[in-house]
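Pair request: fold both.
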Amino acid sequence: MREGRNFYKGGFWHIISRGVAQQKIFQKKEDFAFYLYKIKETLKKHPLAIHSYNLISNHIHQLIEQTSRVPPSKFIASLHTSLAVHINKKYSRVGHLFQDRFKAKEIEEAALVPVSLYINLNKVLEKLQHFNRPKISKREVEKLLKEAERDPWSSYPVYLGLREDGVTQANYILSLISDDIEKARKEYRKLAVHYLTTGYFLKTRDLIFEI
């Protein structure tokens, strides 16, 4: 018997959804674009706030806030059913697209900034794990962050004011840094560098995945 989810209005959750058997969820660029389109459509039926996200080929990270009496599970179920039907039809596949049900970890307000960074920089963190070195130079970090700033499937560029996606509500978390939005964006970028060069992401990962 599955354990119930204790969702409630005003709560924040880190959501992670993985492809079945570690297979790809998204195979082409248009699959990522379709998912973002379906997010906007699904929000009309099951409103909530998406504070950050990162779409990776075989898994999805989201930081969401329940803003009404409707639990996030309704939003995720509707969104992922639509995606599964679309992907199965497009690629002539059958069966589940996602592995089991999504994982949800409640996040306290004090951890919202680091968790948003963990999500926004998740692709960068995966690359760093493959470097197999105890330290990474600031030059290498800057190169990786420049790549992240051009990532169309992550909310990181939205936090820096580089693009709008009609999905991410970044201002709340930025306001936890400063009431001045431009100052907050610059500080967020500095935190990203600090986050990567000090290994602070390990603490955040432990927070997210603790049992």
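--- second member of the pair ---
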Amino acid sequence: MKPLEALLASMQGTIAVKNERVTVLDEARLPGRIDGLIYEAVFSDAETKAIARWLIWETAQALGIRPASINDLYMARGRGEIGRSFTVPAMNLRMITFDSARAVFRAANRLNAGALIFEIARSEMTYTDQRPAEYVSSILAAAIKEGYRGPVFIQGDHFQVNAKKYAANPDAELKAIKDLMVEAVPAGFLNIDIDTSTLVDLSKPTIDEQQQVNYTLCAQLTQFCRSLQPQGVTISIGGEIGEVGGKNSTEAEMRAYMDGYLRSLGGIVGISKISIQTGTSHGGVVLPDGTMADVALDFEVLRHLSDVARKVYHMGGAVQHGASTLPETAFGKFPECGTVEVHLATGFQTMIFDHKALPAGLRNKAYEWLKINAADERKPKDTDEQFFYKSRKKSVGPFKQDFWNLPAAVKAAIGADLEERFVFLFKQLNIGDTGLIVERFIHPVELHQPMPTGGVRAVKAESVEGLAD
């Protein structure tokens, strides 16, 4: 039996295919069959994966679950057309992505939240073993499973230039970013964060000179990204003026970056938001006993630069990275100070690894693997707690199927706690009832993909050392 016939048989009459379009025959029974289809899309042979991903995409299109750009929402905010302040969570789902996304959609349905983003960074794609088409399939399948309807915002986080590779061979490093865009945009990534902030040179005498390579290359990559847009779509693009974990950003840096970027852009639509540094770091800082160090996040920098971004450059505002490990009291401050978007990642990974329902044998198996395969990342003074906390993300890809195959009761317990976490964050970030706001400003284009005639193309894993996640 051919893969398409076999997969349709497994769906037990819930969907049908005619003229390369999917028709939903039984929407009520469809959620009960989607689990098997997404499993094939992730773990089957190359040809079956390709067909399964296509079926998920086309089924989602038929149901009105459509990857979309958040650009128009952000630009409306920049024009002052949205009468309330909320901060869009951009969530990096590294582990058990289908089940984690299900928890997000359950939380969104409970609160009628529509302004939320699923994302994955260039580095994460490698160490979690999730290429763009697989990631999108997991998100869309989760939406189908949980009965979510409407636009789905999927983002390429930190499409970041590796400074060392750029210094050695700039053309090759820029080509790697462009190749990733070529892969990601048709897969459904209609939101892209371009990060050339690694090339800021603070040794230069003027702020414009410090930012020049950053804004010039971001403009070039913006132009390339725009050339890939599906008809009727304006991809939401973000830029970055200061590498996360460095010194706090200033208004002078933002103005130098934006003025230079706009000069270099050539009159096309530019970025809708700008990432700044305010005192956080990716993943947080873990102390020897395994607890997290306090973070001195400067909310006044966020407030001021978000205001400048909107009033001077008519963007949505400033973006905060590295926030998932902040104290509970911090999240409500983001909408108060006008932050347009906040990136959340490590905290969800921590919840899964440390969950009481997770079998200790699987966690220990992953840790033993890290002792051998990530040994070079251990610093001489690292305790076990520090080493495993910092390195365990590298075990996500090698143990992806082990986590996916956890007993249903275990995944249900983890999913329930993730759902409550998402509900808490969504309430703090004030995105409840943003479904109506999204409906007002976002009108997703119906996008169809050709039925695949070959298998999923293998992508050579790249070294991602030094890249942000």
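Observation on the second member. Confidence is low (pLDDT under 50) at residues 282-287.
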